[in-house]
Amino acid sequence: MPRLRSAVLNGYLEVAKSVGLNPYPLMRVSGLDPATFSATAGWIEAKCVVELFELSALQSGCDDFGVRMLGNRGVSNLGPVGLIAREEPDVRSAMGIVLRHMSLHNEAILLDLTESGGLATIQVRPATDMALGRQSTELVVASIFRILSDFLPDGWLPVATCFAHGAPANGEVHARVFGPSIYYDHEIDGIIIATGDLDAPNRLSNPVLRPFAQEYLGLLAPRENSSTAGQVRDLIATLLPTEHCSVTRIAHSLRMDRRTLHRRLAQSGETYSSILDSVRKEHATASIARGDRSFTEISSELGFSELSAFSRWFRQQFGVSPKAWSVDQGEPVPERQQY
Question: Transmembrane stretches, by residue range (predicted)?
Fold first, then answer.
């Protein structure tokens, strides 16, 4: 079962008491030992925390309980992941650390970054075999909002904060936290920001400390793919949805020129194009099987400028159209509205 660090419960006792709850019986009913609060570096089952937050909202009558939990959370609440991210030079690389290594802090959620038309979307999804309640979802989205606020200048606001569920009975707390641009009954849970925000400097960064943070990251999460081909695969998977995936950019990230990169890939029997196709095939089939993306969305996430280009590529790879493949799998892809 997915787990998360007990630091996620920071502030729970105070918020619960502020809305008239006795938190300890609720914790026991949810399967949590109250002693958890004395071990903020430990791991606890995510489903117990989800149940605790939902039960607390129900018992208190506060359907904004998750947002109230935000408190002083920010990048520092992510523990080791936050320590590393805060030293990255710009917001894009800092958020890249958060997105790629969130499982070191919380195994229950997946964070996706996509870019299109000058907008960047950070979407929250539950991990496999995990269901997120309203309160947990709102706390995660609020935490992402606060992390971005830590990196960006004072007064920054997103283009939109989105929730797939309906509006709360009283939206005052949400408006105070997120600002005026909140959308409910949306197709995603997440934050939409200007792409330019990702390229802004990270105001927390200290260039002197970054090498030590990177070394610490290597100890926490050593690369599974240490070969050049494996590193290229990792970078393609990260950059593909961002409209910034190219052999030139990847070569630069690996501190080599394009010719050297092509030569090293050839030594392992690979090419940039073969790895790109492999990553695209894996992502395309997984997205269609999940059934939570339209073909247009999948096309954009795979770096195609037009749906027709994606369809041609898909037919070349699989011998059938995306629609035919989804029907064969029994997972039709919805034609969902765009933001």
Answer: none
330: alpha, beta or left? (left if phi > 0; alpha if psi -120 to 50): left
**Model confidence at 61: pLDDT above 90:** yes
Percent of the chain with pLDDT over 90: 50
Cα dihedral angle (148, 153, 157, 161), rounded to 10 degrees?
Answer: 0
Of 47, 50, 56, 49, whose CA–CA distance to 25 is shortest?
Answer: 56
What is the distance between the alpha carbons of residues 76 and 74, in angstroms, rounded to a whole number?
Answer: 5
- Nearest 5°: phi and psi at 46? -65, -40
CATH superfamily placement of domain 224-339: Homeodomain-like (1.10.10.60)
DSSP structural state of residue 104:
G
| 268 touches 227 (CB < 8 A) | yes
Considering 60-64, 76-80, 128-132, the range whose residues carry the highest mean pLDDT is 60-64
Beta partners for 162?
183, 190
pTM reported for the whole predicted model: 0.69
